[in-house]
């Protein structure tokens, strides 16, 4: 190792000594622990939070250990170190070994620093008010403390040395790693250079990368090169949808074939990994939670013998060692070199990986399909309370603990606030009632208790962030049996800016990150950050774009049904094949489908349905990928078949897009518009036009997936000719206006007829 191995005293102890079971995380207990520490420290005359540092050598490795003693009394004989821990109603009969070990580590460091022959150690168990419920005192000589210290340090250093050797092998493999393709695609090399620079400078890059530029390889390859050069310590590739994990995983597998030796992990949600019938993460209910941490070390030892940690590898090891696969994957996350996962692992304050992102200076993140991040972040930063949800939870709590119990009664103040209006309404009443319920809910085990606790914590976090903050709005709507309260984030930029400023580089990229400078602002960008827009790498003449003026506005939809149906049918009949029409809503889709079925009953139809599960989605896509039979698919803009699906060649030859994709008008969207107008002087753009046209461009991007593809795009709306919408289309979409249904058919037919004939 070229630089000293640094570790905190707590982490050093935690490597070898730890509670055995997975237990629900209690925000209440963490808060009470802090209060107990502060109260105990305030009443003591000893020094609080006295810092210690030891530097030395272990197993041939330079090591630095740092920490802070809870209390240090240098007037005692011998000097006294006190470790403070929170206890419940029943205090322990003896000190927990990990608590005593932490005090012993401080004791050794103090003896080394002050040249002391011995110290006294005291582990105190206190309430949240600082009241001592139990205490355990022990004097230890310097030699005994030294033995205990190195008993903890040696296995830690040996493990870290093993990881370091693996990282050296990783870095050597990266140094020799070629780009995973024979040649760079147009624009790909420029993107790779910009991504590398962003990480090297610890800045942000916002990039428009059209379909075909090979975005996953263009950002992963330079990030991995930066990893080997010490410019970052980990790379997180973040996606908005589960299906988007496939592309980076494919590129990592390709690099592995070229010699890459890096730990690559894909994270999945707990619900997708849990093998139990019901997700109840408690040792009383789950045998995998009971003793999980006792078995974890063996599984990690086995895991580092390979480099690919995909779902099947994680599940196999979790099954072999009887582990919770989700918690196991989070442990692997700490030593992984590249992690693929959802946005929420980095950005959602409720579920983000605190073990990674509380101290993220070495983490670089690559944000795929970044046009989704602003709305996702606003949802992450918002919180909601629902009266029906609370009533149902109180009913379950009553069944489990009785209606006369403390927990059942704790629901009542909050339920009353949502059931009927109070005058005057004070927001802090919601916070107080929510906080009181969270405190009591902590260790409860009735069905749904964990989910409710997370919802309450999210609401509390949001309402606290929203105090005197124009980027938040509180909606309080008390109604008997159906009331709700919602704290809404209206501008995620300040939060994203603060979070990403601590990272080792951020690359946000998408084919539809338009308008680029406006999107960089809402995603937390600053003046010194870079923006890059790449052109499409495919020949422009391979895409024919037709625009036909149909009024698809909500008020005019009844009159648009027949012309829209006939236009779609004309596009299909110009060359029967795999065709998709995208609609602004399911209701509009169904109405047009009925007209198509009546007007042109011979056209084979398949329609997206609301709430399709994974199996249904796969069946739908197989209709396009499994055979060559002509088919007209009807889908919604912004849905699972409008983004992130790859239908190259004959799997999709034409697409029609109805409308400009504007979000639904409602009170929240109006609030968002007003805040964006105030902050950026472009309320309608941010609230409606930009997200709408991003949906349009994403759907259009399902066409022309390779340099050999040809396709026809039909834009059905008169607003596409307006400058504000037209300028948001990518350069390679050059519209030709048509004025009749017959012209749609004839122009598209001529385009297909002009296609160069393939040589036999």
Write up this protein.
With 760 residues, the chain is α/β, with parallel strands linked by helices. It has five domains: 5-160, Lambda Exonuclease, Chain A (Alpha-Beta Complex), CATH 3.90.320; 187-242 and 337-381 and 504-537, Rossmann fold, CATH 3.40.50.300; 263-336, no CATH class; 382-489, no CATH class; 540-753, Rossmann fold (3-Layer(aba) Sandwich), CATH 3.40.50.300. The protein is 44% helix and 19% strand. The strands form four sheets. The protein has an eight-stranded parallel beta sheet, with helices on both faces. Helix 18 (427-441) runs antiparallel to helix 19 and helix 22 (557-574) crosses helix 23. The mean pLDDT is 93.
Query: How far from one another are the termini?
Result: 61 Å
CATH architecture of the largest domain: 3-Layer(aba) Sandwich
CATH fold title of the largest domain: Rossmann fold
Strands of the widest sheet, in order across it, are 10-9-11-8-12-16-7-17
Please give the CATH class of the largest domain. Answer: Alpha Beta
How can the largest sheet be summarized?
A: 8 strands, parallel
Q: How many individual β-strands?
A: 24
Structural class: alpha/beta
Helix content: 40-55%
Number of domains: 5
Specify the number of helices: 28
What is the strand content? 15-25%
Low-confidence stretches: none
List the helices and strands and how they pair.
Layout lengths: L4 E4 H8 L10 H17 L3 E12 L2 E13 L6 E7 L10 H18 L3 E9 L5 E10 H34 L12 H13 L3 E5 L6 H14 L5 E6 L6 H12 L6 E3 L3 H4 L18 H12 L4 E2 L1 H10 L4 H9 L4 E5 L1 H4 L6 H4 L5 E5 L5 H9 L1 E4 H15 L4 H5 L1 H8 L7 H15 L7 H17 L6 E6 L6 E6 L3 H9 L4 E5 L5 H7 L7 E4 L9 E6 L8 H18 L3 E6 L2 H14 L5 E3 L6 H12 L5 E6 L17 E5 L8 H14 L2 H18 L10 E6 L6 H4 L8 E4 L2 H13 L7
């Amino acid at each position: 190792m070229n630089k000293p191995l640094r570790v905190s005293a707590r982490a050093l102890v935690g490597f070898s000594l730890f509670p055995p079971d997975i237990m629900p995380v209690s925000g209440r207990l963490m808060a009470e622990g802090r209060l107990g520490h502060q109260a105990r420290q305030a009443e003591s005359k000893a020094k609080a939070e006295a810092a210690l540092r030891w530097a030395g050598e272990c197993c041939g490795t330079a090591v630095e250990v740092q920490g802070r003693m809870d209390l240090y009394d240098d007037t005692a004989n011998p000097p006294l170190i006190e470790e403070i821990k929170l206890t419940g109603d029943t205090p322990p009969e003896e000190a927990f070994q990990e608590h005593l070990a932490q005090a012993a580590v401080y004791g050794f460091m103090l003896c080394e620093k002050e040249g002391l022959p011995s110290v006294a150690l005291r582990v105190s168990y206190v309430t949240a008010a600082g009241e001592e419920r139990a205490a355990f005192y022990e004097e230890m000589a310097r030699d005994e403390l030294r033995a205990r210290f190195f008993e903890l340090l040696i296995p830690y250093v040996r493990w870290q040395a093993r990881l370091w050797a693996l990282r050296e092998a990783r870095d050597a493999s990266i140094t020799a790693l070629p780009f995973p393709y024979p040649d760079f695609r147009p624009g790909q090399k420029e993107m790779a250079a910009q991504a590398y620079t962003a990480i090297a400078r610890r800045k942000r890059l916002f990039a428009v990368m059209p379909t075909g530029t090979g975005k996953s390889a263009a950002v992963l390859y330079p990030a991995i090169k930066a990893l080997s050069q010490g410019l970052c310590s980990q790379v997180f590739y973040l996606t908005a949808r589960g299906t988007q994990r496939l592309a980076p995983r494919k590129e990592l597998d390709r690099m592995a074939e070229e010699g890459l030796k890096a730990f690559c992990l894909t994270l999945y949600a707990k619900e997708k990994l849990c093998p139990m019938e019901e997700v109840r993460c408690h040792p009383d209910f789950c045998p995998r939670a009971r003793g999980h941490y006792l078995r974890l070390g063996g599984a990690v030892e086995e895991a580092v013998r390979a480099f690919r940690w995909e779902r099947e590898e994680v599940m196999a090891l979790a099954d072999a060692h009887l582990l919770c696969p989700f918690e196991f994957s989070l442990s692997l996350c700490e030593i992984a070199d590249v992690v693929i996962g959802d946005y929420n692992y980095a950005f959602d304050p409720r579920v983000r990986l605190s073990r990674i992102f509380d101290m993220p200076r070495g983490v670089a993140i690559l944000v795929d399909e970044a046009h989704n991040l602003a709305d996702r972040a606003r949802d992450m930063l918002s919180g909601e309370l629902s009266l029906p949800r609370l009533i149902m939870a109180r009913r379950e709590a009553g069944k489990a603990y009785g209606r006369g119990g403390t927990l059942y009664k704790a629901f009542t103040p909050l339920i009353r606030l949502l059931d009927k209006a109070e005058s005057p309404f004070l927001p802090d009443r919601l916070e107080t009632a929510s906080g009181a319920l969270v405190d009591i809910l902590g260790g409860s085990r009735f069905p749904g208790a964990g989910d409710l606790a997370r919802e309450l914590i999210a609401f509390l976090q949001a309402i606290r962030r929203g105090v005197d903050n124009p980027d938040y709005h509180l909606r309080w709507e008390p109604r008997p049996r159906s009331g709700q309260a919602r704290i809404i984030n209206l501008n995620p930029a300040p939060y994203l800016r603060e979070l990403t400023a601590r990272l080792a580089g951020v690359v946000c990229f998408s084919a539809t990150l338009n308008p680029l400078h406006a999107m960089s602002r809402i995603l937390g960008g600053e003046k010194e950050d870079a923006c890059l827009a790449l052109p499409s790498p495919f020949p422009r003449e391979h895409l024919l774009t037709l625009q036909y003026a149909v009024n698809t506005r909500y008020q005019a939809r009844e009159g648009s049904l027949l012309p829209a149906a006939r236009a779609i049918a004309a596009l299909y009949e110009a060359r029967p094949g795999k065709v998709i029409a995208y609609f602004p809503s399911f209701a509009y889709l169904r109405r047009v489908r009925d007209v198509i079925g009546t007007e042109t009953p011979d056209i084979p139809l398949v329609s997206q349905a609301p709430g399709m599960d994974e199996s249904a989605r796969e069946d739908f896509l197989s209709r396009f990928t499994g055979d060559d039979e002509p088919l007209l698919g009807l889908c919604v803009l912004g849905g699972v078949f409008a983004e992130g699906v790859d239908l190259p060649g004959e799997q999709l030859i034409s697409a029609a897009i109805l409308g400009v994709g504007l979000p639904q008008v409602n009170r929240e969207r109006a609030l968002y518009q007003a805040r964006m107008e105030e902050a950026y002087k472009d309320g309608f753009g941010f609230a409606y036009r930009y997200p709408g046209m991003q949906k349009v461009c994403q759907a259009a991007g399902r066409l022309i997936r390779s340099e050999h593809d040809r396709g026809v795009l039909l834009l059905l709306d008169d607003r596409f000719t307006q400058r504000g919408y037209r300028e948001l289309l990518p350069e390679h979409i050059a519209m030709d206006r048509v004025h009749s249904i017959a012209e749609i058919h004839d122009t598209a037919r001529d385009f297909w007829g002009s296609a160069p004939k393939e040589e036999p």
